[in-house]
Amino acid sequence: MKKINFLRFALMALVAVSVFAFAPQTTYAQLSKKQTKTLNKEREKQYQKVIKVYQKEGWKLSGSSRTIEVALLEHYSNLSEKGNVEFVGEVSTCKSINVCKQFALTNAQNRYASLASGNVKGRIESLLRADANMPEIEIDKFIAAYENMVKAEVGGVLTESYSIVKDKGDSKEFKTFFIMNEEKAGAARMRAMERSLRETKITVDEAKEISKFVNEGFKLD
């Protein structure tokens, strides 16, 4: 079976990411004055609702001299920038803030890797099983490697926005709200795919199809 030419594939991947990055998207500049006014009004309602929930449930801002109100406003401001989305890491029980923080990051990485691999797993398995010469072990190897590589790559594209903590007596509950840029996340998935391909016997044509699946965006939970 012909091994993939990685130089050729790298160029192909770069083109794919570029097309994804510059695809037409609706921007806030395209909204009418009336729509912008409505959007700002709904943002304010959402902001007030979240603050009330935090106050009612006893959440406090962690590791910052800002108020929780300022942190949330800045978070929403960052989310308004093109391509930015929210991703949350959380832990229900932890002892120290440092441990809580690390667990929350790990939770976010694991969840994103699971979503990313789950989004393409079925299609990749169908594609590779269509090749009668593709050993089952190579299919499993690629899927497992891809999820692990995404987990390693995604940490570099998660930017902490703010963290909140709730005292539960002998333990704490902790959440970190991250800002993730979809373009950077897509590039991270492509890097994970390239690294995974080096460990498997995937052909050039199969790699092209896989790159299309990997490069597609998907809904974050």
Q: What attributes characterize this protein structure?
A:
alpha+beta, 4-stranded antiparallel sheet, disordered N terminus, 4 strands, 15% strand
Element layout with pairings:
Layout: H1 6-21, H2 33-57, E1 60-62, H3 68-79, E2 84-94, H4 97-129, H5 136-154, E3 158-167, E4 172-181, H6 182-197, H7 204-215
Antiparallel strand pairs: 1-3, 2-4, 3-4
The largest sheet has its strands arranged as 1-3-4-2
What is the averaged pLDDT score? 83
Strand content: 15-25%
- Taking pLDDT < 50 over at least 5 consecutive residues as the criterion, the unreliable ranges are 1-28
Query: DSSP helix count?
Result: 7
What's the N-to-C terminus distance? 39 Å
What's the order of the H and E elements? HHEHEHHEEHH
User: Gyration radius, to the nearest Å?
Assistant: 21 Å
- Quick one: how many beta strands? 4
Largest sheet, strands/sense/barrel: 4 strands, antiparallel
Structural class based on helices, strands and sheet pairing: alpha+beta
Overall number of structural domains: 1
- The helix fraction, in percent, is 55-70%
Shape: globular
Please give a structural write-up.
This protein has helices at 6-21, 33-57, 68-79, 97-129, 136-154, 182-197, 204-215; strands spanning 60-62, 84-94, 158-167, 172-181. The longest helix has 33 residues, at 97-129. The model is unreliable at 1-28 (pLDDT under 50). The protein is built from seven helices and four strands; from the N terminus they run ααβαβααββαα. It has one domain (39-215). The radius of gyration is 21 Å and the shape is globular. A four-stranded antiparallel sheet has the order 1-3-4-2. With 221 residues, it is α+β, with helices and mostly antiparallel strands.
